[in-house]
Amino acid sequence: MEKIAFLDFDGTLSKDYITHAFIDYLIERKIYSQEHKVYMNQGRDNFLNGKIDHDEMCTIVLNGWAEGIKNQFTNTIRLNAMEFIKIFRNNIYPSSFKLINYLKECGYHPILVSAAPHEVISLAGEELGIRDTYSTKVEIKSGLYTGKVITKAHLSKGKAEAIQEIAEKNNVHLQKCIAMGDAGGDFDMLKTVGLPIVLNPHKTFINTAEEKGWPVFYHKTIMERLRIRKAWQLTSEVQRQTWKTEVKQENR
Q1: Local confidence band at 36 (pLDDT 50, 70, 90 cut-offs)
Q2: Across-strand partners of 7?
Q3: CA neighbor of 13 nearest in space, from 102, 89, 74
Q4: How many Å separate Cα 164 from the centre of its chain?
Q5: Is 201 exposed, middle or buried (0-12, 13-18, 19+ CB in 10 A)?
Q6: Using one digit for the tens of pLDDT, what is the confidence trace for 114-154?
Q7: How far is 95 from 14, CA to CA, in rounded Å?
Q8: Which distant-in-sequence residues (6+ apart) come within 8 Å of 193 by Cβ?
Q9: Helix ranges restricted to H, the chain
């Protein structure tokens, strides 16, 4: 493994939030309480209204997820996740499948780095042809969920720390790596790699992307306009900055 592509999922590769969709699925099957969903929705609404930042919103949502499955058997959630992903697969952008194949052709090892629950994001990864994922995990004891989140995948700094550990473990230089994300929760991950790309940006993140000079793409046109291979064939930083400027101008 020489190069890694670190990829956010929600918004970046999929048009809907997989966590919320899975919770709705579990509520229909009377496995998850409506009360916890209301709590989580308040956090999302406060984020959209600018009252809290992305990390605060994700903390509310993922803590709500953990509390909602407390004392559930892991097999119950796993089996429901397997049925759920058959439906949710349709929410993954068609270009995402092509993008993953393209990244592999370019020599990148794709890894999903997502705040979403491991139970569903690992299956979404399988659909996309991605074996490795870093996502939110809830503590398990004696086959039951305890309601305690034991990872930091829902935090921007947690994602950045994770990719640093992954790169170090595999002896990969982050300056040779790509990261793709769409919102503030991906900021630290994006700034950690050599080639950050903003894909399907959330409206609250567009200004940040422009200020940083990061290339911005959208799912309908990314396969036509992405020039990853060309970017890494360029030898100087000046040439790379020129490429980024050209891409930014094309997106206006």
Answers
A1: confident
A2: 112, 180
A3: 89
A4: 16
A5: buried
A6: 999 999 999 999 999 999 999 999 999 999 999 999 999 99
A7: 10
A8: 6, 163, 174, 175, 177, 178, 179
A9: 18-28, 34-48, 54-68, 74-88, 94-105, 118-128, 156-169, 187-192, 206-212, 222-225, 228-233, 237-250
Q: Read off the pLDDT of residues 203-240 as tens digits, 9 standing for 90 and up.
A: 889 999 999 999 999 999 888 877 554 554 544 455 55
In this prediction, residue 189 has a pLDDT band, given cuts at 50, 70 and 90, of very high
Decide which of 3.40.50.300, 3.40.50.1000, 3.30.830.10, 3.20.20.150 is the CATH code for 3-250.
3.40.50.1000
Which amino acid does the sequence have at 238? V
The greatest distance separating any two alpha carbons of the chain, rounded to the nearest whole angstrom, comes to: 57
Token pair 């892991």 in the structure block, residue: 74
SS3 28: helix
Tell me which of 40-44, 86-90, 214-218 is least confident. Answer: 40-44
